[in-house]
């Protein structure tokens, strides 16, 4: 005689609600650090609330929004078991897109999908997001953690986020402000940031390089260098705007330096960039050498040491460099704006 079937439950299907609740408790104190005065508590917890009366000081406020993820860098974080820095990459990718138009970041939300909720791991990821939001000056007003058993392995995860900022309509930065004679300034990246990791993983899979390798040029393990969190430029860019003379910014992400900078140019000028104005960081040289990657492929895949570029009026360039240096951001004269057809190129 057949026995009674085993009762089916959500937990039997692989979803642990209690673990999710434990993760929320662990992350609460760190999320509290990423708060602005305009944040209003929602007792239900279903939504994040932000007091829009803060926008009344603007004559014509434009809301700016951006969404992004971290890409396959999450795979290296998983393999190394390091989860408290990947959130910085998410905030850098999302929030530093907002400031390109001159917007002040206001708030952000995140989304984490995982095969299994491990409370401590989720708390580390969200804690890193919150810490980075505090650095960027924006609030983390909400998020979601979703358990996807059967679609993701127990140790696999992915994360994405969205941010909102505000800018005065007549102070919006962009290509229409750029003129011949303007100067292009570079702000150093902290490393690879969060673009090009599919190529990185391909090099790791097809060469003798491993995450444990310690090339002499790096002075530490390759894995440690690859997980260096993305530099967050939001407050530095806003400080430059406040100082005056900024025409446009370009966030150097997927596509590389020239392609991203070209997005901030009108069709009447070119950006002539001096490749000899900086030394490509060692991690890029190591990857290029071991992977036999052509320079053109490096140029269109990685930031090569420049994480953000600013186009400024010529009489503002020196002061802008002094300001960035005083804020601890390595910066230099990268190139110049000349009459052209809207292209940027390294020479």
From TrEMBL:
Pathway(s) annotated for this protein in UniProt: Purine metabolism; IMP biosynthesis via de novo pathway; 5-amino-1-(5-phospho-D-ribosyl)imidazole from N(2)-formyl-N(1)-(5-phospho-D-ribosyl)glycinamide: step 2/2
BP term (GO), one: 'de novo' IMP biosynthetic process
Chief place where the protein resides: cytoplasm
One of the record's GO cellular component terms: cytosol
Catalyzed reactions: 2-formamido-N(1)-(5-O-phospho-beta-D-ribosyl)acetamidine + ATP = 5-amino-1-(5-phospho-beta-D-ribosyl)imidazole + ADP + phosphate + H(+)
EC number assigned by the record: 6.3.3.1
UniProt cross-references to PANTHER family, sorted A to Z: TRIFUNCTIONAL PURINE BIOSYNTHETIC PROTEIN ADENOSINE-3, TRIFUNCTIONAL PURINE BIOSYNTHETIC PROTEIN ADENOSINE-3-RELATED
Protein's name according to its UniProt entry: Phosphoribosylformylglycinamidine cyclo-ligase
Organism: Actinomadura livida
Gene name in the database record: purM
């Amino acid at each position: 005689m057949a026995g009674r079937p085993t009762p089916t439950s959500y937990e039997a299907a692989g979803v642990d609600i209690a673990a999710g609740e434990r993760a929320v408790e662990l992350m609460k104190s760190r999320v509290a650090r990423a708060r602005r005065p305009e944040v209003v508590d929602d007792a239900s917890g279903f939504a994040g609330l932000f007091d829009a009366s803060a926008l009344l000081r603007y004559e014509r406020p434009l809301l700016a929004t951006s969404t992004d993820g971290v890409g396959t860098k999450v795979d290296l974080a998983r393999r190394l078991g390091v989860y408290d820095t990947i959130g910085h990459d998410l905030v850098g990718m999302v929030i530093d897109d907002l400031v390109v138009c001159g917007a002040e970041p206001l708030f952000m939300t995140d989304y984490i999908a995982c095969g299994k909720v491990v409370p401590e791991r989720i708390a580390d990821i969200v804690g890193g997001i919150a810490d980075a939001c505090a650095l960027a000056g924006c609030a983390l007003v909400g998020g979601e953690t979703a358990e996807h058993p059967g679609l993701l392995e127990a140790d696999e995860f992915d994360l994405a986020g969205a941010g909102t900022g505000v800018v005065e309509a007549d102070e919006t930065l962009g290509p229409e402000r750029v003129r011949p004679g303007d100067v292009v300034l570079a702000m150093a990246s902290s490393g690879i940031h969060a673009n090009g990791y599919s190529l990185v993983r391909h090099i790791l899979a097809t060469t003798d390089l491993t995450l444990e390798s310690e090339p002499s040029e790096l002075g530490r393990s390759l894995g440690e260098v690859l997980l260096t969190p993305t530099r967050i430029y939001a407050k530095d860019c806003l400080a430059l705007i406040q100082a005056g003379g900024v025409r446009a910014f370009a966030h150097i992400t997927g596509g590389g330096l020239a392609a991203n900078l070209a997005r901030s140019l009108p069709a009447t000028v070119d950006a002539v960039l001096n490749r000899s104005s900086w030394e490509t960081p060692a991690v890029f040289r190591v990857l290029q050498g071991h992977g036999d990657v052509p320079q053109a492929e490096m140029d269109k895949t990685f930031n090569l040491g420049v994480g953000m570029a600013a186009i400024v009026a010529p009489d503002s360039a020196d002061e802008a460099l002094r300001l960035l240096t005083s804020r601890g951001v390595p910066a230099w004269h990268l190139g110049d704006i000349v009459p052209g057809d809207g292209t940027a190129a390294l020479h």
